[in-house]
Design goal:
By secondary structure, this protein is an all-alpha fold. The chain has one helix and no strands. It is rod-shaped and about 105 Å long. 0% of the residues are buried. This is Protein MICRORCHIDIA 7. Keywords: Coiled coil.
Length: 75
């Protein structure tokens, strides 16, 4: 009886260790995915800022051309 209980205890400890390892693996996978997502978000935010800056520069050029055109100084 004690032998069977000891065997069950050892099996349960092995199972717990396996589950802990599986949990750590999943945590690592999720952490890596989060890091990839964060890097991609940072990259997209940078591209969005660059696009916004380009749009602003183009709008400024349009306004300048419109002012020159309305004052008759368009070259």
């Amino acid at each position: 009886m004690v032998f069977i209980d000891l065997e069950k205890l050892i099996d349960a400890e092995k199972k717990i260790e396996e589950l802990n390892n599986d949990q750590e693996t999943l945590i690592d996978v999720f952490s890596e995915e989060r890091d990839r997502r964060d890097a991609e978000e940072k990259n997209l935010r940078k591209k969005l800022q660059e696009a916004s800056n380009t749009i602003q520069e183009l709008l400024d050029k349009i306004r300048l051309l419109e002012r020159k055109s309305s004052s008759g100084k368009l070259e």
